[in-house]
Write a structure and sequence with these properties.
The chain is mainly β. Helices cover 0% and strands 45% of the residues. It has strands at residues 29-30, 34-37, 54-62, 73-85, 94-102, 105-109, 112-116, 120-124, 130-133, 140-148, 161-164, 171-172, 180-183, 195-202, 207-212, 218-224, 226-231, 234-239, 243-246, 252-256, 262-269. The strands form three sheets. Strands 3, 4, 5, 6, 7, 8, 9, 10 and 11 form a nine-stranded antiparallel beta sheet that branches. Strand 6 (105-109) and strand 7 (112-116) form a beta hairpin. The mean pLDDT is 95.
């Protein structure tokens, strides 16, 4: 971790099951414009498994589905000791991003071994040769975001990236008194990339001061803190561990409630023409 960076916190679910005495008072919402999956629903009963993954379970946060996500899927992976996969990605057209929130992950990418710890980020181009294993004695938990890469004639595939957010200086947004910043893992002007996964940080009291209404589809996982989000004319309280999916053009604004920073992992689709209907 860079000496100039503060200590980071990353919420990671552990599953379990609520007691029968617990009353259902959760905040789950599913609408045509957005969905909110609060941390209280990451229970054992809603986990999934994948072929060729060992000692592994996952929570599916979003998937391509009519009326839901269109461009990506997002999982929280939980890999136990000696677990992992030699064949993690079945689709050669899929690109991926891994982001570690708890534990230690060994990533082998194009024959090079990387040990990833919380805050660790990896971009995996389509068609890559890669494997993941947990060599430690504790479970490792990480996000896995998948997207079908949109190739463009004359533009090369992006290269692999393995880094950690704590080694990257955040970019402060203009005219915000330094309370709103974005940690970028790729150059936003690099047209090879058709998705951006970043970490957004608001200091207590920081705001998005207008309803953003734009073409990107969003996936937001709250890593730390709490806020109130304004989504399509509804105010929604969110906290560390909650997940939000926002369809393209869903109005969005927020107020960071404090007492500490409000931080989230953000997915957006970028840098490509809008797909048009096929004409007969």
């Amino acid at each position: 971790m860079s000496a100039s960076q503060p200590t980071r916190h990353y919420y990671a679910p552990h599953g379990g099951h609520p007691d029968q005495k617990v009353m259902t008072t959760d905040r789950a919402m599913f609408t045509e414009a957005f969905a909110v999956i609060p941390k209280g629903v990451y229970r054992d009963i809603v986990t999934s498994k994948l072929p060729h993954w060992h000692n592994t379970r996952l929570w599916v946060l979003s998937r391509p589905l009519s009326g839901f996500a269109e461009t990506f899927s997002q999982y929280i992976m939980e890999v136990g000791p000696e677990g992992g996969s030699e064949r993690p990605e079945p689709n050669p057209q899929a690109e991926g991003v891994l982001f570690v929130v708890e534990g230690e992950l060994e990533l082998t990418l194009a024959g090079q071994v990387h040990v990833m710890v919380p805050g660790g980020y990896a971009f995996i181009p389509p068609g890559s040769d890669w494997q993941v294993h947990n060599r430690s004695k504790e479970a490792v938990r990480f996000h896995w975001i998948r997207k079908a890469y949109e190739r463009v004639d004359g533009i090369d595939l992006p290269e692999p990236i393995v880094t950690n957010e704590n080694d990257i200086a955040p970019t402060v947004m203009p005219d915000c008194n330094e309370v709103w910043a974005t940690t970028r893992f790729v150059d936003p002007d690099d047209m090879r990339h058709d998705m951006h996964v970043t970490v957004v940080t608001f200091q207590p009291g920081g705001v998005i001061p207008f309803d953003e209404t734009h073409v990107m589809e969003h996936g937001l996982y709250v890593l730390e803190g709490k806020a109130v989000y304004h989504l399509n004319q509804q105010w929604v309280e969110v906290e560390a561990g909650d997940y939000m999916w926002l369809r393209a053009f869903c109005p969005q604004a927020c107020y960071a409630g404090g007492p500490g920073p409000f931080r989230y992992l953000l997915y957006k689709d970028v840098n490509r023409h809008m797909k048009l209907p096929t004409l007969d």
